[in-house]
Amino acid sequence: MNAAAAARMGPWRETFVERGHGVTVFTSREARDEGNPSVWTSRFGVPSNQVGLARRFLQEIRLGRDLAGELRRRASHFDLVVITSPPFFLASMCARSARLSKLPYVFDVRDRYPGVLFELGTLSRDGLPGRFFSQIEQRVYAGARSVTTVTASLVQELLESNDSAKVSLVPNGYDGQLFPETLSKHKKRDLFTVVYHGRFSRLHDIASLREMAKITQGLDSEIRFIIAGPLPEGLSRENWGETTFLGELPRNEIPELLAGCHLGVSLMKPSGATRVAMPAKAFEYFGVGLPVIAAPEGELSVFLREHQVGLPFSKADPSSMAQAIVNIKNDFSVWEMMSANAWALRPSLDRRVQSVRFAEHLESLV
């Protein structure tokens, strides 16, 4: 399933099974696997990023009620449940179901809600709904056997209101089975190509991405951009220069697409939420040796500087970023250095290596 939560959970599940544990996955209808008793799929789909917040909230509630209800009915079959968030409201409903069933749970935080909604201005932190959702968040953490999260910055945030023994770092990564090392020999496209891969949310800076693509290709007609993901309706008809739109690809087609490109891109809107983020797409770029161009300042830009695996910008400046891309294309030795660093870093970023440590952590909880 081509979604961040599924990409994170898949290698975990396989590692747990390899270690002799029984695993059942509760998920949405998109992951339907007929005849597989270890996957229970809801009749409802994944909440969409392409709809308004009110409609998305209703989609979350609908799917959350279905998953939480089934979890409650089957709670006696399990020793531990791992719940990943977002979607936060769905995840918090499952956490409540686990608490009522006296089933220990681990709450895995990929983006911190409702903080993201506060950052977007959707909710006021001091308003009644904001205080209510903050209380739900703290209740979820308080009831969890363990709280895991994806970046060191988020760990520090969670430690402010949680017992230090409860909070653990379980970073993102790429799937080494899906992204084999043989991709290092994959042929690059004839023209220097910058790729964006993944879904878009309200946190992504699509306007700067479009402007950067347009300016870059105006400076150098032998540079191309590829967008592999569901762009919000109508945006692809705007002026993107010579940009190719592939839509959402099957997950098994993504590694070869990325391996044929030269640079990956991750542009977010500046906020507290993006400052502490390490987008999963960045790890998949590293999984095929792609340097990354990223903005704004935050955990990802620090990582790029520290390991010399990309071009970090303190803020999205399309003109400066476009010139940097042209410079890298014209001085290929810089690209080769960053790509070599990404390949050298790659073994430590494999989710299947990290999954063993996560499994050991879960085994210590039960």
Return the average pLDDT rounded to an integer.
91
What's the CATH topology label of the largest domain? Answer: Rossmann fold
Q: Report strand %.
A: 5-15%
> Strand order within the widest sheet?
9-8-7-10-11-12
Tell me the major beta sheet: 6 strands, parallel
Rg calculated over all Cα atoms: 21 Å
Report the count of strand segments: 12
CATH class of the largest domain: Alpha Beta
**Spans of 5+ residues with little confidence (pLDDT < 50)?**
none
Key words describing this protein structure:
alpha/beta, 14 helices, Rossmann fold, globular
Structure, described:
The chain has 366 residues and is an alpha/beta fold. It has 2 domains: 4-173 and 350-363, 3-Layer(aba) Sandwich (Rossmann fold); 181-349, Rossmann fold. It contains 14 helices and 12 strands. The protein has helices at residues 4-18, 53-73, 88-100, 115-120, 128-143, 152-159, 206-219, 254-259, 272-275, 280-286, 299-307, 318-330, 332-345, 351-363; strands at residues 25-27, 39-41, 81-85, 105-109, 146-149, 167-169, 192-197, 223-228, 243-245, 263-267, 292-295, 310-312. The protein has a 6-stranded parallel sheet with strand order 9-8-7-10-11-12, sandwiched between helices. Helix 2 (53-73) runs parallel beside helix 3 and helix 7 crosses helix 12 (318-330). The longest helix has 21 residues, at 53-73. The protein is globular, with a radius of gyration of 21 Å. The chain starts with a helix and ends with a helix. The model has no long low-confidence stretch (mean pLDDT 91).
